[in-house]
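Could you show me some protein's one-letter sequence and the numbers that encode its backbone in two labelled lines?

___
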Amino acid sequence: MFTVFSLAEKLGGEVIGDGNAILTGVAPADQAQAGHLTFAEKASFLDAAEKSAATAILVPMGFESSMKTLIRVKDPRVAMAKVLPLFFPEEEYPSGIHPSAVVDPTAVVHPSASIGPHCVIGADVTIGERSALIGGNHIGRGCKIGQDVRLHPNVVLYSRTQIGNRVSIHSGSTIGADGYGYVFDQGQHRKMPQVGNVIIHDDVEIGSNTSIDRGALGATIIGQGTKIDNLVHVAHNVVMGRHCLIMGQVGFAGSTHLSDYVVIASQSGIAGHLKLGPQAKIGAKSGVMRDIPAGETVLGYPAAPDKQAKRQWIAMAQLPDALKRIKELEKQVAQLSKSES
């Protein structure tokens, strides 16, 4: 529970209206009740917010209302990202080890960490302060888990995986499984042992049912602040830079390097041994078969610069009509040839 004034102070915002009004929650305009804060990031949304039962509206600078108390901020979406944890704080887990957990005697678990039901913690594992294994987690030999980490149910870390601080990995994800490596020998595929590991730096979030394979020799690396969506596959020795955004159902072949701030939209496939430059952007359902320079946006399969890809799509859409015109011209040419003969 906050007053409008106290909440605005936390956001660095400006109050227009009753700053002493009490806010008890957050809701979209069509569901807001008295005591709720709603938001209108565009002028077109303000009318619905004003007609709602909400007590106050979070808006950009310059907005006015004769009907509602406003909290004006530079960026309402950023402000909302700060507001939501105040009303919906992350669940806390009690420190200690659940009786059903199996912990190797050589593991070092910080007393403030929480080890949930049916977790298995292998030899030489270290788990840092306030980290929580929520349940059913298997942590392989030699893994290192930093501070304030959250491993949601059924996350598996294979041996020697390294997890930084404030990392969140959602249910069903597997980190450090074998990379896909085989050599053809005398009529059969011989497995190439994958003896590397996975290193995940600070402030990374990984969605559910994602698989990140360990390196063949070195490490598969996920850079600081990178966010990976659900159902993503990262092959061996991929290196991601800082603050990349990877949407759902993206697949990476081995040894591709992403620089900082790369964005890859859903259902894209990235071939192996490529380099994606800083701030490169990959459109949805793209097939990337070449290096992408810094700052370039590509689309399609195979992926091409966005303007070129759009021209190709327009041209493809015009092909049926073009074929009709060609057939008509062919008929005319044939008729002319007959008349001349």
In short: Residues 96-304 form a domain with the UDP N-Acetylglucosamine Acyltransferase; domain 1 fold (CATH 2.160.10.10).
